Structures are given as structure tokens and as C-alpha cells.
Amino acid sequence: MSTLSHHTVERLDRPSAYYVGKNKRRKYSHDEPEKQEEPTDNLKNATTLYVGNLSFYTTEEQIHELFAKCGEIKRLVMGLDRFTKTPCGFCFVEYYTHQDALDCLKYIGGTKLDERIIRTDLDPGFEEGRQYGRGKSGGQVRDEYREEYDPGRGGYGRAYADDQRRREEEDYGKGR
Amino acid sequence: MADYERRPHGPRGGRKRRYRDDDDYDRRQRRRHEEPLFVKVRRQLLTIAESAARRAEDDAIHIAKTVAENYGDDEIRGVYLETAIDLVLEQPLKIPFIAATVLAANVLNPEPVSELLTRAGEALQGYINAGAWREVKLLLRFLGCLQGILEGDGIFPLLEEIFARAVDLQTASSEDLLGLELVKIILFTLPYVMASPATRFETHATALLEKTDIIASTPHALVDLVDPFCLTEGKPAATESVISLMQKQLQGESNRSWELACLPRPWKRIYETLEAQKEAQDEGAQDEEEAESASTTAPGAKHAFPQVVMPSPVGHGARAIFPEIYLSVYANQDIETVPPTSDIASSLLRDSLVDTINILDFNRIATAKYLIDVDCYFTPNTFVKRATPFDRLRELPTDRPQWKPEDVAVDAVFSQLFQLPCPEHKFIYYHSVLTECCKIAPAAIAPSLGRAIRFLYRSLESIDLDLSQRFLDWFSHHLSNFGFTWKWSEWIEDLGLPAVHPRMAFITGALDKEIRLSFAQRIRGTLPDPYQELVTEGKEKDTPDFKYMSDTTPYSNEGKEIMQLVRKKASDEEIQPFIDAIEEQAKSLGVEDPLIPSTDAFVTAICFVGSKSLSHFLSCIERNKERLLAIGPKSPRAQRQIITSVMDYWVDQPGIGINIIDKLLNYTILTPLSVVEWALVDKLAAGTVLAKPHVFEMISATVGKVTNRLRQIVAARTQPSLYEPQLSVLDETLKREKTDMQALFRVIEDSIVSVAGGSNDELMERGDGSGTLPEDEIIRRWGQRWLRVFRRKAGVEESFIVEALVGAAPVGTVALTPVPDDAAASEHAPLNGNMDIVEGDGGK
């Protein structure tokens, strides 16, 4: 019933700084004066969430099991590696109502699924093509250069691992 | 000026970097500029009493002085008035401290106080008009704390008026619940008035209490409905509503000259400090710094109570009101770690905590922090030190309470999670609060949760079935956030119980849910040896076997062919010959309904081909939905065969099966009635099916779908400015669907009632036919518990519809000014009689 204009604590059901920042940057670079709308306007009635930091091994069923706790799921789109078409650690969850999506941000974002802390972000809606990773090697961009070993997300970042391998090969001579 | 660093763990602090990518920018700014005074006032107000290291009284005086001395500054004025009221409404634990800043300010400068009272009055009026009774309660609490600086009888005339409205409501109907809510407001305001600096109101309070007694102490008919325990044996305490409890506790306090030990009295120290400062100033009056502050003696000027009008009759907001029952998961311990219900602290602590939890659902991390900090907001030493281990309590002196702050906090969360008929927010919110509590203070919270779990586990036989399901759901979800670690070894003895025993049902149900959130192999690894056999090999199989692969399965050839065709995305015509072949064979074998074996083969094939993931399954359904949709109208038994085939295929992973059933309902391939009849008629198995948690889950979800839909229709039907012809269309839909819903509840009732009464034929025939086997009694109890849940659901929905329709426009209402056609059409676009309100497009 809270209808205050200012809350005394931060709300967790706002779009992330990443989303706001991404759209701000885009707005400035395009330099279109007539596009004055707030970057978050298209999230007013959003029913879709971007879900990140999943393990590559987390299944649709597991995601369903957790996310259905916030409301009936209308559609679930797994994020896939552009080349191998295998899960690459993100997905889109679409609910029937905006409120369910907000509740998901509040109650599920930052909790664990498959023993990993997952990230949720309000999303304007899934479009064909967005289910694929945008990284050079097919997965997500963040998995290209990651220097930490993450067994749930294919080990080291791919670009990073390639780089390491090249260096090793140079050190030891090709063909072992 | 002291440089306040960001509090490292505050809910607004820098800890949550992931929410604040612009953190660096923020910090640089802060370093460069001196914090403006109004920002500081806001921050000090927001964090008042949060730290055990600082005295809330000192902060209150500091805030009061800043505001009193700079009241000409519009920003300071605005920030103070707004933040104070916001805090009252959002952080109830802080109300006595916010009030303390007001009491302090009043000694120095009455101007901000009178303006704040006006604002509080306006807000109060707004919430009264809207029927937002929790907000009314909180604002009255705040005003009650200020009774000492109010003219005349202060808050009492309004309390009397609220009571008069409660009497009106109770007189009008014995079923009234709003009147009880109003009495609750009065009862929860009184202690704060009596703990305020105001004196000479004992007779007022006692007189009011005498009046509320008749309403508060009369048990309401619905109390039994929301009782968390459904069977008399094993019940920890007699069922008492929150208000009857509070009434008794207040009467006790009135006999103890309103000791109200747990309520903080920050004003005492504030008045002393201000007096001392005034004396010091008076002595040094010749000083040039003849400050005007502290010029008057406490409490300062008196103010009129703000003008507030109670409408007659009063209304109530959107949330349905039900009687509340005091539940504690720490009842009957050998050491009291939470206040007993004989102590008013039980109600006062619970009320503030519950409001905090329910108001702050938009930031579970903040909620958890305030829960952990509960000891900061009540009289010091109300609790033992945080994280004192349970066993250490024995060594502490027994002359004062040994209440553990984390037990009190956790108890409050469970009271909401286990609220009947349902809590204010989704269950998962309460899960998430407990998760955060555990993250903030694992050493303190985890053992408390452990004792709560043991209490609930021991209560499994007597607790309401809905609540045992919520417990199951929370337990598995909670463990999934903490590496699935639980001391399973302590329940090993129970593994010898029959499968239908509630404890065994809980154990198997919990493991199943854990696996659903994780995977079988992982969960197997968390279990001691005796549990290993519960995680069967079948649970580890990603793709269960296709039974038609075995040549001994009837129709195995056709089954295999159909499966290949489904896999190849063949057309319906290509599949038809094999369906026909099965049906002809079946006919020749004398099968009564040949559509049953053909449906089995077809659906099992779809399950097998779609076993890779739900998406795969759904695209199979999408391609074959015409055939599937045609089954139900041809033969209800074949329709139920669809469910049998799905649940048989996924027998080791019923969670997946339930999910599929849910989607088939959306496609209307199944009807809610078919699901209920399948479970409670076809598969009743002398009632043993009632012991399966996943069946309860399936039926609850199906019923939930029906009631949700009906509520949406009601919402459409009762929206303002709805006119003919839409009105009649919606009314028709409502009537039709309501009849369907009632029919559904009747089927549930009819099939369970025989199990509950022990008169089920099959039940009678079990074993030696005497119906007196130990398991027979267990099954009867399952029946009684099921019955209670679904009778309650039926009752709640029925009364929801009746109440919602009270103010709705009657059929035949025509728009006064004709609305242009197209405008009307677009306004009611989704309600044009097709009623596809969230029909569910099949979750494609």
C-alpha cells in the first residue's frame, strides 16, 4: 500500500544501472534530439526479465521451478551459443503480468539457482535473435575475456584461454 | 562536522555495489562537497536508532536542534516533515524514535511540531478514507507517542470514535471483520500512548479497554478457518486470535500500572538532557551565546489534535481481512527464547516486525537488516545478546527474559509465511527474507532456523496441509541457497515409517523438490546412506525409457512408429493409420474405450520426443494440438489417460509431470475437472494418493488456476464505468464460471469426504477390511486435512465474490452520456465477451 514519492530505503524493482547506462550511452551517441524519452519508459509494463550468470548446465526445468514461484511463466527462452546452440548462461523469462516481473526482481534477483547467484534485469521484451550470445566465439561477451576459472561457465574466458594457449605454445615450441 | 562514512552494511550503503554501477562517480562527488545540512538531517533521521553504538536520544536531540534552529530553511523544513512521516509509514520500528525527535523539537521550537501534526493529520485522513488500516494504525501510533504534547484528551476522542464505528459494524453483522480490525488499531495504539510522557490517562485507557473487551474477546466464527493447526491433538496452545490475546495482555498491563517494559522511552533521556542544557545555559546567561534553544521547559507548547473525520460507515481497502492467529514456531521449548503469549511483548514485537516485513517487500535486504537489528528498537536488555547459543541460555541468570532477538525475528517471518488463508505477499518473498537474514548473520540465524524446522517437522501431523506444503516449499528452496546442507541424520529413524506417514511424505517431497531445483546426483551427494535409496536410479535419468521400446508392451510396434513420426514432425494424416491400428486391435481385444490405448501411445511418444526440455515438449504439443484437443470432447476417460500417460512417463520426476499438466490446462487440452477427477477419483487408491505432496501440489495449482481466472472476471465485472452491453456479457461469464468452480469444489469434496470419514469402499477393503490398520487412521487424517484446505479455499473464493460485487454496477446499467463507439470499444477491448483474459496462450 506504500504510495510514497520517496522511499526510506532503495527499491529493488528498478531497472539496473547497466540497463539505464546502456540506453543513455546509446542515446548520446545517436545524437537524436527528438528522442527525449526516458531510457526506462519502455519498461513501464515490462513482463520480461533478462536472467544472467546462470551455469551452462542449468536446465529450463530448474529455471522454471524457481521462477514460477513469482507467478505463472508465459515463455522461457534459453540463451544459446551462436554457433553450438548450447546454453551459454543466460535466459529470458516472460511472465503474464508486470507485477510478477517486478516481484521477481525483488525476490529472486541476487539469490541462488543451481548454487550460483543469479542476476535479473527488467527487459523490454524478447525479440528473435536475442537468444544468442554476442561474444566473438558465440557465447556471452563476458565469457570471452574472463580471467577467473568458472567451471559452470566453460572454464576460463575463451579469448583469454586462447591467448594463454598461444603463449604456452610459443614457450614450449609447437607440437610439444 | 564529523565526517560520516557510509555505513558499511546499511540497506542504502555501498555494500551492494552490483546495484550501483555509478558508485565511483558518487564517491568522488561526496569527497569534494560538504554535505548540505538538509541532506544530513535526512540521513540522520533515516538511520535513527539503527546503531547500537550510538545513542538514539543524542541523534534525536541533534536532529531536533538542527530543525528547530533552521526551520526558516525550506529545504530543512521539507525534508524533516516528509521524511518523518515516510518513516512512520515505512519503518514502524522507528516510530518511538521519530516521535522522540518531535518531542525534543517541541521543547525548542513548537513551529515544526504543529506543522508536522497537520501533515500527519492529512495523511491520516487520506488513509482512513481509503480504508488503508495498517497505515492508519501506524500514524495513530505516532500520534499516540506524542500524547504528552497534545491538548486536552489528545488522541482519545478519535479512538472513541473509531470504537463507535467498530460497534456499528459489529451490530450490523455478527460476521463483520472490519470492526475487529478497528478494535485492533485501538488496542495497538494504547500501549504507545501509555508509554509516552503523557500522564493522567490511565482511566481513559482502562475505560476504553473495558469497552473493547466484548468485541475483542468474542471468538469470531472464522477463527477456526485460519487456525494453523487442524487437529486437536498435538496442538501447542489453544487457538486465540491476535486481538483477544492483546486485549488480555493490555488488561494485565493496566493492573501493573502500564509497565510495558519492552517499549523504549527515548523521551526520558531527551527531557533530562534538554533540562540539563537549559540549566547550564541559564547559569551562563551572561554569555554572548544566549542561545534561544532550550528556552522552554519540557514538554513545551501543547498542540491541538489534528482534525480528522471518521466517515460513517467506514470502508476498507483492497486486501481482504481475516482474523489473525498468533503462531510461534518456538512455542513449548524448555527455555523461552521468545516472549510467551502471557507477556504483552509478544504482541508488540510481533506487530512491529510483521508490519516492517510486509511494508518493505521492495527491499528484502533492508528488511532482513531491520529484523537482525530488532534489539536496537526496544528497551535495552529486552533481549539477550545477539547470537547467544541456545544452550548457553541455561547458564544465564533467570531473573530476566532470555529472549533471543533472532528467534523473535525469524518467528515473525514464519508467522507471515504461515498466515492463513494467505499472506500479504508471495510466499517467496518470505523465503527471500529468511535467506537474507541467514546471509547477514549466519551464525545467529542458522541455529534459529534449525529449531524452527524441527518444530515444524514435529508438527507435520497436525499442521494445516496448506502450511505443511508451504513448509516443504520453503525448506527445499532455502536449502538450495545454502548448498543443500541439512542435518538429515537426525531424521533417519523416521525412515522406517510407512510411506503414507506425514513425515515420510515430507522427506520424500523435500528431496523431490531439492532435485527439481538442482539434479539428482547432486542431492544424492548431500544425503547420508540410509536416504540413498530414496533417490532412485530413475531420478537420475534425463530421458526416461519409452515403454514401447519393449516388445512386451502392448501396441509396441505402433507406439514406436508414432514416436518416430512425432520426432520427424510428421503430419496428422501420417500418424492417423497407426492410431487406427491401435484402436482396431484394442477393439478386437474387447477394450471398452479404444481411444485410451491410442491416446496412451500418442501422448507417451510426445513425452519421450519432448523429454529434452519443456520447450521441446511444448513445440511437440504445438504441432499436435489439434489431435490432442479432440480427445477430451470424444471421451473424458481418454482425456484423463493423457494425464496418466504424462505422469507415468515422468513417474520418477513428478515435478516435470506437474509442469506439463499445467501447460496442457492452458492449451485446454485438459480441463480442471479432468485433473481433479484423475487424481481424486481414478487414482485415489483408497486415499493413499492424498499422502503424495506432488498430487496436492497439482490439485492446488489446478484449483488456483480456476480461482485466479474467476478473480480476473470479477475484477473486470466490478470495474467502474462498465455499462451495457458489456455488463451483461461479463455477468453471464461470471455466473457460468462460478458454477463451474463450485462444481469443481464439489467433486473434490465428494471424493475426499469418504476418505476422511473412513467410509471409502476401497479403504474399507484394505488389509483385513476392518479399517483399523494403523495406516488406515493415517489416511483418514490425510482426508480430513485435504478437506479442510479445499473447504477453506471454496469459502474464501465464495466470500471474495460476494464482497467484490457489493459495490458493482447492476446488470442493465447504461452509460449516462453515450460514449462514442470506438472509444468504448478500445476501452473495454479485452472484455468484449470473448473473455480471453490471460487465457494462457499455451506458453509457446
UniProtKB/TrEMBL annotation, chain A:
Biased segments, Basic and acidic residues type: 141-151, 160-176
Cited CDD domains: RRM_NCBP2
GO biological process, one term: mRNA cis splicing, via spliceosome
UniProtKB keywords: mRNA processing, mRNA splicing, Nucleus, RNA-binding
Pfam family, one: RRM_1
Main location: nucleus
Domain RRM residues, every copy: 47-125
GO MF assignments: RNA cap binding
Superkingdom of this protein's organism: Eukaryota
Compartment(s) where it occurs, according to its Swiss-Prot or TrEMBL record: Nucleus
Entry-linked InterPro entries: NCBP2, NCBP2_RRM, Nucleotide-bd_a/b_plait_sf, RBD_domain_sf, RRM_dom
Region: Disordered, residue numbers: 128-176
GO cellular component: nuclear cap binding complex; nucleus
PANTHER family for the chain: 20 KD NUCLEAR CAP BINDING PROTEIN (PTHR18847), NUCLEAR CAP-BINDING PROTEIN SUBUNIT 2 (PTHR18847:SF0)
Protein family (similarity comment): Belongs to the RRM NCBP2 family.
Record's protein name: Nuclear cap-binding protein subunit 2
Organism from which the protein derives: Aspergillus fijiensis CBS 313.89
UniProtKB/TrEMBL annotation, chain B:
Protein name: Cap binding protein
Organism encoding this protein: Aspergillus brunneoviolaceus CBS 621.78
